[in-house]
Design a protein that fits this description.
Elements: E1 2-8, E2 13-20, E3 25-29, H1 36-45, E4 49-54, H2 66-73, E5 76-80, E6 90-92, E7 97-100, E8 103-109, E9 118-124, E10 133-137, E11 140-141, E12 144-145, H3 154-169, E13 177-180, E14 198-199, H4 200-206, H5 214-223, H6 232-239
Parallel strand pairs: 3-4, 4-5, 5-6, 10-13
Antiparallel strand pairs: 1-2, 2-3, 7-8, 8-9, 9-10, 11-12, 13-14
Helix pairs in contact: 3-5
């Protein structure tokens, strides 16, 4: 498997390009509008065609490069089926498995940050059938979790977020690597580490939010509202095709 993260240290955004070198197919997860050409160039340098583009949710802090990248490469642009957007996309569902040669991606619906949020569980069959890492989007960060207030109803969303983290992510093996969509510098959560990746076992031990009861979690995560990302309304309209 080829795997490369793309980090934007000015805004704490992370995107990922990975896939099967054997048959030359790759995907891009959470592409940033400003870096579309870089993803294409990297894939080309490895002899891979980009066949799938995933946004783990409709982003509120930056303009997605998903539609542009899919149009440029002919890839499928994938969002959870519930995404409230105005343009055509490839709908994906909880438990769906997408195969890119020896790389397999299992979709996990992990609502809470937004209703359509997904995480992507990835295995490299050349290493073995067990998953290797999970792209957690804005559901689970290193040292924190996604903020639940951007769509409104923050306390209800915080409870749903806790369920997603507990039932879908923390149930996975401790040695699984996690690659979130953001790290310190992003407005999509509070208390994020500047280290952009971790393991589930490390987060279980050291992420302070994961030790809270449901009542405590909802109070702390849903009751504390940090400032909204700059230009959020316009960004969300653009990412939903309503600009």
């Amino acid at each position: 498997m080829f795997f490369r993260p793309f980090y934007r240290f000015d805004s704490g955004c992370a995107a990922y390009v990975f896939g099967c070198g054997g048959i030359g197919v790759a995907c891009v997860v959470d592409p940033h509008e400003a870096d579309v050409a870089e993803y294409v160039e990297f894939a080309k340098s490895k002899g891979m065609a980009i066949t799938h583009v995933f946004d783990t949710h409709v982003h509120a802090d930056h303009r997605s490069g998903g539609q542009a990248l899919a149009a440029m490469t002919g890839a499928k642009y994938c969002l959870h089926r519930s995404a409230n957007v105005t343009f055509p996309f490839e709908p994906v569902d909880d438990g769906q498995v997408i195969k890119l040669g020896n790389t397999t991606i299992t979709v996990l619906h992990t609502p809470g940050h937004t209703a359509e949020s997904i995480s992507l569980l990835v295995a490299d069959l050349r290493r073995g059938p067990e998953p290797w890492f999970v792209c957690t989007g804005d559901t689970l960060f290193v040292g924190s979790v996604g903020r639940p207030d951007l769509p409104g109803h923050e306390r209800e969303n915080a409870a749903e977020l806790r369920n997603s983290v507990r039932d879908k992510l923390l149930a996975l093996p401790d040695d699984l690597e996690i690659y979130p969509a953001h790290f310190a510098g992003s407005a999509c959560g509070a208390g994020m580490s500047g280290k952009p990746m971790s393991t589930l076992g490390f987060e279980k031990r050291w992420n302070p939010l994961l030790a809270l009861s449901e009542t405590e979690f909802v109070e702390q995560v849903g009751g504390t509202v940090p400032p909204k990302p700059e230009g959020m309304a316009a960004i969300m309209r653009a990412n939903a095709g309503r600009a």
